From TrEMBL:
This is ABC transporter ATP-binding protein. It comes from the Bacteria. InterPro entries: AAA+_ATPase, ABC_transporter-like_ATP-bd, ABC_transporter-like_CS, ABC_transporter_ATP-bind, P-loop_NTPase. SMART domains: AAA (SM00382). SUPFAM superfamilies: P-loop containing nucleoside triphosphate hydrolases (SSF52540). It comes from Thalassovita aquimarina. Keywords: ATP-binding, Nucleotide-binding, Transport. One of its GO terms (molecular function) is ATP binding. The keyword Transport applies. Belongs to the ABC transporter superfamily. It holds the Pfam family ABC_tran. CDD domains: ABC_NrtD_SsuB_transporters. Residues 3-232 form the ABC transporter domain. The keyword Nucleotide-binding applies.
Length: 255
């Protein structure tokens, strides 16, 4: 299933948030969205997920979702959103129960996503027994369990410390390399964007417009921290964002 954003503009009453965003979300790739605070990144993700509708323009879903897909557009949130009284397995089975999948069929899916996220040994643990990084892996496993067409990831690593972020980026690269998935990944962090994104969409400050779409051709598995090409890409992204970020910063202070 392909997703196309066609001329999306949005205002909250007179407050214009984004203007004329058109974009194809490529299947089997990670598309990162970066931009200064308040430029509409999370709002755009909500439009893609169908949680809100734009004032004008359309989100088009073209083609069929993957076989066995229970929820084509599935969120991964910054704060993990796990039920504290359910084990790791129980948190994953919840999204399957919602679709009437129980017993052996559910267990097969749970075992598969736990293996893919290297959580097999933690199936019976409760969220309170897990570190932040492990909790986010459970949230990613839960998202994978519904075989989404597109994972919508809103700053999924921003609640984690720097080392844990590095580890989770490695995990995401590993996960994608073994079985490519499609994701729209919103982040403030340009290092994250050049490490994980096949494409990085740079939005201007509010009203958010597309300033540039930067393609990063180095295969994900070959991207090392400190890689010269990635550093060049990151610098390019920063130069695009710097003035916009300054202006957005000043605007927030003056509200
Ligand atoms: N429901 C709403 N009603 C009114 N204004 C809103 C609503 N939701 C978001 N906004 C405003 O729209 C603008 C874009 O918000 P959004 O959260 O999408 O930006 P963002 O780029 O994700 O920001 P950040 O990087 O700070 O998370 C902001 O100015 C925000 O205050």
């Amino acid at each position: 299933m392909d997703i196309r954003l066609d001329g999306i503009s949005h205002s909250y009453d007179d407050f214009e948030v984004m203007r004329d965003i058109s974009l194809d979300i490529p299947k089997g790739q990670i598309l990162c969205i970066v931009g200064p605070s308040g430029c509409g990144k999370s709002t755009l993700l909500r439009f893609i997920g169908g949680l809100e509708r734009p004032t004008s323009g359309r989100v088009l879903q073209m083609g069929e979702p993957p076989e066995g897909c229970l929820n084509p557009l599935t969120y991964v949130f910054q704060d993990f959103a796990l039920l504290p009284w359910r084990t790791v397995s129980g948190n994953i089975s919840l999204v399957l129960e919602d679709h009437g999948i129980k017993g052996a069929a559910a267990q097969e899916i749970i075992d598969d996503v736990l293996a893919r996220t290297k959580l097999t040994d933690f199936a019976k643990a409760l969220p309170k027994q897990l570190s932040g990084g492990m909790k986010q892996r459970v949230a990613i496993a839960r998202a994978l369990a519904v075989k989404p067409a597109v994972m919508l990831m809103d700053e999924p690593l921003s609640a984690l410390d720097a080392q844990t972020r590095e580890l989770l980026m490695d995990d995401l690269v590993d996960l994608w390399t073994r079985q490519p998935f499609t994701a729209v990944y919103v982040t403030h962090n340009l290092a994250e964007a050049v490490r994980l994104g096949h494409k990085v969409v740079v939005l201007s400050r509010r009203p958010g417009r597309i300033r540039e779409v930067v393609n990063i051709d180095t295969p994900l598995a070959e991207r090392e921290t400190g890689d010269a090409d990635l550093e060049t890409a990151q610098k390019h992204l920063w130069l695009l964002m710097r003035d916009e970020a300054r202006a957005a910063d000043a605007e927030l202070i003056n509200v």
